């Protein structure tokens, strides 16, 4: 039987190896710079293009995607569906921070901002789900950052699509509830 102390020792050893790997094999590589740009550039674009009159609901969409994509990324990595060879810091071994905290949320915030009607939003959501799953996935695979183990690109399409619809439904519902409640005196 394995003790908790043995698990802690293995975890500590893994952390040391990961930090060493990161320093020797990852930092300052083209892949590392690509990840850094992928984290910063979307937010710069977002800052200049976001509709400040709708900042709160748009931001809620982004926060929804940050939370859900981080959770699903950690889950998939833990289940060995995929793995990452490159990361911005040695701390992010189970999730890819630039995709979860920048690329995915910013793309879906723009989707929500620009496609207000459900019909166009559904079509846009499907296009983005296909783009993220195939083009985005292939680019990260081509760069050697993302490795599919027990996962296929097609599996991500319905997840991205349903999450986009769920995000719009939740945010629109809260907005509608807020508007019908009116100001309290």
UniProtKB/TrEMBL annotation:
Residue stretches spanning the membrane: 32-49, 56-76, 96-115, 122-145, 151-171
InterPro entries xrefs: CBO0543-like (IPR048147)
Coiled coil: none
Top-rank taxon, per record: Bacteria
Keywords: Membrane, Transmembrane, Transmembrane helix
Protein name per the record: ABC transporter permease
Source organism of the structure: Radiobacillus deserti
Lineage, top ranks: Bacteria, Bacillati, Bacillota, Bacilli, Bacillales
């Amino acid at each position: 039987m394995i003790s908790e102390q043995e698990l802690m020792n293995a975890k500590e050893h893994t952390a040391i190896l990961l930090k060493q790997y990161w320093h020797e094999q990852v930092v300052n590589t083209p892949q590392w710079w690509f990840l850094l740009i992928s984290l910063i550039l979307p937010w710069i674009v977002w800052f200049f293009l976001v509709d400040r009159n709708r900042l709160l609901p748009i931001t809620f969409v982004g926060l929804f995607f940050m939370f859900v994509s981080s959770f699903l990324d950690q889950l998939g990595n833990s289940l060995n569906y995929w793995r990452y060879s490159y990361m911005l810091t040695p701390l992010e071994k189970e999730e890819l921070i630039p995709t979860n905290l920048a690329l995915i949320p910013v793309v879906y915030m723009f989707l929500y901002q620009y496609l207000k009607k459900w019909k166009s939003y559904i079509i846009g959501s499907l296009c983005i789900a296909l783009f993220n799953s195939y083009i985005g996935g292939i680019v990260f695979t081509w760069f050697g950052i993302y490795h599919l183990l027990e996962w296929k690109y097609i599996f991500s399409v319905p997840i991205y699509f349903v999450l986009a619809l769920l995000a719009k439904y939740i945010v629109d519902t809260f907005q509608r509830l807020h508007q019908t409640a009116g100001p309290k005196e």
